[in-house]
TrEMBL record:
PANTHER family: DIAMINOPIMELATE EPIMERASE (PTHR31689:SF0), DIAMINOPIMELATE EPIMERASE, CHLOROPLASTIC (PTHR31689)
Name of the molecule in the record: Diaminopimelate epimerase
UniProt keyword annotation of Cytoplasm present: yes
E.C. code: 5.1.1.7
InterPro entries named in the record: DAP_epimerase_AS, DAP_epimerase_DapF
Gene: dapF
Reaction(s) the record says it catalyses: (2S,6S)-2,6-diaminopimelate = meso-2,6-diaminopimelate
NCBIfam families linked to this entry: DapF (TIGR00652)
Active site: 75 (proton donor), 75, 219 (proton acceptor)
Keyword terms, alphabetized: Amino-acid biosynthesis, Cytoplasm, Isomerase, Lysine biosynthesis
Function: Catalyzes the stereoinversion of LL-2,6-diaminopimelate (L,L-DAP) to meso-diaminopimelate (meso-DAP), a precursor of L-lysine and an essential component of the bacterial peptidoglycan.
Listed SUPFAM superfamilies: Diaminopimelate epimerase-like
Organism (species): Thauera terpenica 58Eu
Positions of the record's site feature: Could be important to modulate the pK values of the two catalytic cysteine residues: 161, 210
GO annotation terms (biological process): lysine biosynthetic process via diaminopimelate
Length: 277
């Protein structure tokens, strides 16, 4: 079966995007892994699928698959690419759309300056909602990783995040700690591991070891989670400029119980056709 796709990225977090609005597409984990494979497939951190909405008052269904084949709840950089894609492909003329994801409805806005602002929803702080196994709801919690006790903030941006503050993000043990945190027994759904260096009250540097994809050049939900964690810890004030290895995002948050707003670019790289077995 031949399948048309578009290659996109948000700050180097790269995606294969497929229009399944008029196509019944069976995406098994093995098929997703084959598409995402950087040597034998197209290559991407995540596969994004555009589907018709299944409920009233929503424009599309937005599905997200990690490179490891697992379907997940949310992807921030992907959300910005999603609105650019449906607009560029003529699937909608609206610059503001509402899309359903596994973790609820989010609103995406393609601005006239080309940047995209996404209302990523209200962060979940209760450990059970992350999910994070903990009897305490303290903002900073100890997490035993090998011989180290890390101080993490666990929260959900629709998907699970564990954020720690580091002195120097370039020297952070992302490759060593990332896989151990991702699969830590206290995160039953696994977790995205963020390493944040605070530069000032409105500026951080961030690296994220993503669940199901490894370290990516940027993680949109990771940037939102880092800013929420930093604000809850009293280290940051909104808005915050987040420097990732792939570029910059601006994150705004008015505080507990309010949604996080993420603004950044969305880029189309090329179009193609692949053989899907
Ligand atoms: N790159 C994404 C997050 C993608 C999903 C994540 N790896 C997970 O498993 O939750 C982003 O930009 O938010």
């Amino acid at each position: 079966m031949k399948l048309r796709f578009t290659k996109m990225h948000g700050l180097g977090n790269d995606f294969v995007v497929i229009d399944a609005t008029r196509l019944a597409l069976e995406l098994t984990p093995a098929r997703v892994r084959a598409i995402a494979d950087r040597h034998f497939g197209v290559g991407c951190d995540q596969l994004l699928v555009v589907e018709p909405a299944t409920q009233a008052g929503v424009d599309f269904r937005y599905r997200i698959f990690n490179a490891d084949g697992g379907e997940v709840e949310q992807c921030g950089n992907g959300a910005r690419c999603f609105v650019r894609y449906v607009h560029d492909k003529g699937l909608t003329k609206q610059r503001e759309i509402r899309v359903e994801t596994r973790s609820g409805i989010i609103t995406l806005c393609l601005r006239t300056d080309g940047l995209v602002t996404v209302d990523m929803g209200v962060p979940e702080l209760a450990p059970a909602k992350v999910p994070f196994l903990s009897a305490s709801d303290a903002v900073v919690q100890p997490l035993q990783v090998g011989a180290l006790t890390l101080a993490i903030t666990a929260l959900s941006m629709g998907n699970p995040h564990a954020v720690q503050v580091v002195a120097d993000v370039d020297g952070a043990a992302v490759a060593e700690q990332g896989p151990l945190i991702e699969c830590h027994a206290r995160f039953p759904a696994r977790v995205n591991a963020g390493f944040m260096q605070v530069v000032g009250p409105h500026e951080v540097r961030l690296r994220v070891f993503e669940r199901g994809a490894g370290e990516t050049l940027a993680c949109g939900t990771g940037a939102c989670a880092a800013v929420v964690a930093g604000m809850l810890r009293g280290l940051l004030q909104s808005p915050v400029r987040v420097h990732t290895r792939g570029g910059e995002l601006e994150i705004a948050w008015a505080g507990v119980g309010t949604p996080v707003l993420m603004t950044g670019p969305a880029v189309t790289v090329f179009e193609g056709e692949m053989e899907l077995e």
